[in-house]
Amino acid sequence: MTRERTSVAVLGAGLIGIDLIGKIQRSAALDCRLVVGRGPRTLGLRRAAELGFTTAAGGIVSLLDSGPFDVVFDASNADAHAEHSSCLKATGATLIDLTPARLGTMVVPTVNGADAAAHRHINLVSCGGQAAIPVLHALAQHCSPQYIEVVSTGASASAGRATRLNLDEYITTTQEAIRAFTGTRDVKVMVNLSPALLAPPFRVAMTVLAPGLRPLPVRAIAAAAAEGVRAFAPGYRVASASVSEGRISVAVEVTAEGGRIPRYAGNLDIINAAAVLVAEQHATARAK
User: Fold this and answer.
1) Which of these, 159, 109, 102, lies nearest to 131 by C-alpha position?
2) Euclidean distance between the first and final Cα of the chain, in Å?
3) How far is residue 179's CA from residue 50's CA, in Å, rounded to a whole number?
4) Interacting residues of 227 by C-beta distance below 8 A, sequence separation 6+
5) Is the pLDDT of residue 26 over 70?
6) Which of 9, 36, 130, 236 is the most buried (most CB within 10 A)?
7) Residue 1 falls within a domain, yes or no?
8) Is 32 a catalytic residue?
């Protein structure tokens, strides 16, 4: 006998949504039955239809009319997520939020992913959060950070309209997640979008200040954290790591691997890979 795949829908057909459906398509546990956008002529919905997916252009109303679904991915924007969450609550669907709306239970797969299946409303923080928190959480097990600074740099072409509109929410949500996962109150997050013609890979630079810091194998700690992330996002790597007189510096880079997006769009790759992994965990729990 073959196990029935978990039915999913994707709400949002922008850059994140289109890469997400490609990853869902490769999953043996998930069945994408609907891709929803807001306009019938949008490029994202046209691409989804070309790939063979059922599409609808009526936003959350179209999704509710077409359901129910076991899992709904919200790849729209932070401003709309509260309404989407409210509308979907009565359907019993597990809602996986890829917007920085700061609602639901924050999940970073290698940190608290084992608990994900117990929750019906999951927030994946941000792409920068997914890249930085595994390393920061690991470092916080070995020292007591007094200040953490995170600077994310991505190619302009990898940031769609919703991402640009939600930059304030991105910063606030990422800061809150870093505080929650490291126990550090003084946190600063910054974002750079590079217009360089040779688009740079997604890069996240982290600075941790820990007065009285004893010598630490920082590179080994960061590498161990990276190994866990690479299990679902193979393009994730530690680019540099150093420590000196109470200051730790680590930078990671993420390239997109094996998808329909450019290699430099690692910001999309890592959060979408995390979303699919969490959905697959729910599929496994549901089967049991």
Assistant:
1) 109
2) 15
3) 42
4) none
5) yes
6) 130
7) no
8) no
3-state helix, strand, coil in the chain (%, to 5): 45, 25, 35
Taking only the tens place, the pLDDT of each residue in 195-253 is 998 999 999 999 999 988 888 899 999 999 999 999 999 999 999 999 998 999 999 99
User: Are the beta carbons of 3 and 287 closer than 8 angstroms?
Assistant: yes
Hey, what amino acid is at 214? R
33, 111, 175 from 129: Cα distances, Å? 29, 12, 8
Same domain, 135 and 235: yes
Task: Give the model's pLDDT for residue 3.
Answer: 61
Q: Are residues 10 and 45 in the same domain?
A: yes
User: Model pTM?
Assistant: 0.94
Supply the range of the domain harboring residue 68: 6-124+268-287
Q: What is the pLDDT of residue 132?
A: 98
Share of the chain above pLDDT 90, in %: 80
Q: CA Rg, the chain, in Å?
A: 19
Q: Do 132 and 120 share a structural domain? A: no
Per annotation, catalytic residue among 32, 87, 127, 143:
127
224 and 238 both lie in a single domain: yes
Summary mean pLDDT of the chain: 93
